[in-house]
Amino acid sequence: MIQLRLRSECDRSLSPFVVRISNGARQCRDDATLIFEKLGVLNYRAEHTEFCIRDVAPKDIAGDVLLIDPRRQIAHRLIRARSRHNTFLITEQCDQRCLMCSQPPKEHHQDMFEHFLSAARLAPLGAQIGLSGGEPLLHKQALFNFIDAAWTTRDDLSFHILTNGQHFDEGDLPWLRSHRAQLLWGVPIYSADAAIHDEIVGKPGAFAQLSGNFSLLGLAGAALELRTVVMKQNVSGLPDLADFITRYLPFAATWAIMQMERIGYGRMNWSHCFFDSSKEFTDLGAAIDLMSARRQSVVLYNFPLCTIPPVFRNLAAQSISDWKQKYLPECESCSTRIRCAGFFEWYREEDGFMGIHPQ
Amino acid sequence: MQVWPLRFRELTDHRMIIADDSGNYFLADGNFVDRYARDELNQSDVDFLSARGHTFQEASELAHTAFLTRWAKRQYISDGSAYVILIPTLRCDLKCSYCQVSRAPVAAKGFDWDEQILDRVLAFFDNLPVNEIQIEFQGGEPFLRLDHLKAIADFARRRFQQARFVVCTNLQTLNADILEFLASEDVLISTSLDGPHQIHTQNRTRSAYLTQEFHQNLVRVLDLIGPERVSALPTIDMKHPPQPEELISAYEQFGFTSLYLRPVNYQGFARKSHPSARTSETWTSYYQEFIYSLIARNSRTGRVMEEFYLAHCLRRILAPGADSHTDLRNPNIPTGANAVIDFDGQIYSSDEARMLARIRQINLSIGSVIDGLDREKLALLAPSHINNFDPDCIHCPYQPFCGTDPIDDMSRNGRIDVPRQESWFCQRHLAVFDLAIELLYSRDPAVEFTLCSWLGLEKLPDALRPIAP
Predict the structure, then answer these.
(1) B465–A contact, CB cutoff 8 A
(2) CATH tag, A87-344
(3) Interface contact flag, A211 B62, Cβ < 8 Å
(4) Which residues are CB-contacts of B257 (< 8 A; sequence separation ≥ 6)?
(5) Would you list the domain boundaries of chain A?
(6) What's residue A244's pLDDT?
(7) What is the pLDDT of chain B when averaged over all its residues?
(8) Entry pTM
(9) Close Cβ partners of A294 (under 8 Å, ≥ 6 residues apart)
């Protein structure tokens, strides 16, 4: 597992600050350069101070953008230069209580936009940055302002925003339209049946609200990625959901059908929710067939290749973020491992997929 | 609540195929249509329609936005790529009975591009506002002017980000230079294989020896560049149509998994030697019989042959965006990016248009590489290349899946405003779409097997064949 927080040492009286670990020569005043390395401790010089980073090799963090928290003596790796999976956690607040949530919500919100803006400005050229939560749009105005501010100097960046789609209104239409080229909206929908969807997300009326907001995204020409975690609760409704998507959400760029992540509420509700698609793929297959007959894109996230019938394997994406991805011991001998999404770090074999077969 | 307007058509089994402008379709019985026409839909009718996106309450709600999107996706809009057919020569070393372009003899003079026309064609390409192109070489026999083919290919590979070349050849002659040209991955072959030896000989070569030679060349090319880069199609003479089984065997024998059954085109020489090609009844029944033979055979052998056109029409029913076939799109407005450049440098909107000019029926040229495109003529032709507002098409459930062919109307009827049902294009497509719907709703495992294979599906989803209560 790749560490996203590193032990750091610096003057405790300083306020938190963002730096980029310079990769070779210093390019701007926010770049920090390595002064010396001793006993596994890396000593860096930034514009106004010096700091240390522990437990990591210099080459592994070269180009990374760090948020140094002097009070806690921690460095947050906000952007890892060599990863495609960089996400800013906008807030931990959320108005839904999804059964399988991997990041259960918290009451308190800490506004980090200032640091995210500094970090975005130091991101590699053309980077796509994930914006996630909690529910990022609970802080919609601050979020939109952050994106506008980032683009004033870095219009090469794009953002993949994960939102429950509950918080748009008609007034957002011009903003959504003018930003559509560089924003991808990942929005969950769990069922075409409003009652089932509302039950899964733990919020009465959520489906109705979502439906109106999907319409806004459609009218805005926004790039929309629908996301559906497959669970015991919704698997039999997947063919109907596919039919609903092709008829009611024809503007969606893609539909991601996802396997569960065993952490947060997902761990708590695992036995109640986890659907073993390695044993039974009929409804998934029917949903995929319908999507492909109607020429709408579908992808499979978080499905190990061997759990998918061979004809559908080309739809599987290597979707698990590098820092929390692993393979099992039996994957050692598998010839398709290099193309496989693998498993979440917190996956357990004893209550996971029954049909794991190295290829 | 409002229901988006529905159009309906009675099928041979008296069920009705019903569809809206966005191409959402379903089957119903006559009673449903009565209730719809009298504005007496009951609750289960309404529930059925709402679940399938046929209704809305108000503008800007999801049902409304979804319909607008589905409608918009049904309209063909150029994707920034060009498809240009080139006729570097009209000369040909065969003299097929149904030749639609009235080809010229091999020794004839004045039927090839000269250097000036070649230069102008290159300049025409240079000015196209696209980055991708597919160039189809037709003729005559294009390999008679391999020098021109090479010059075009060299230029296009430099000028465009992506270029692909299809040589429509009779494959009577292969030599080292031609084989070298074919070796490039971006070169494809399209040829004619009329089926059994004797029919191919009768229609095309008039000589068993020449047919033999063609067969040998076809095998050689398939070995060299593989079946993925070679396609063949049979032209069917309705006076002597091949037995479906024989025709399919002939294709299978060469390793083809797809064929495109085409009737003799009522153009060029074909008008004199094949007057029966003007009407369609015999074609339709032959075509249906062929498709059912194909389906039975696929089921029997477990090997699947595709009939391209029916599979394509089926794909167009099921979803928007199946616009790869340039003859069936809507709208299909003629532009320079979708054109035919003849041996004399004249530009036409379609291959059929150049044939009409060739027999001097009407000159539908939209310009020439020397003088450029004739914008006035393009504007004049445009409205007839869209079916959305045709007084007959607006009542047809197949309108969103279908297209138009005013050039063919002109060729057969001398005018483009005949009632649709009297036009060959309409008759042919009504029959194809009727057949596609019949197959789609069939519960015969043999039919489902073939359809799944054509569509790349594991199992035919029931949602693709809704039936009103």
Answers:
(1) no
(2) 3.20.20.70
(3) yes
(4) B227, B303, B304, B305, B306
(5) 5-79, 87-344
(6) 98
(7) 92
(8) 0.94
(9) A246, B318, B319
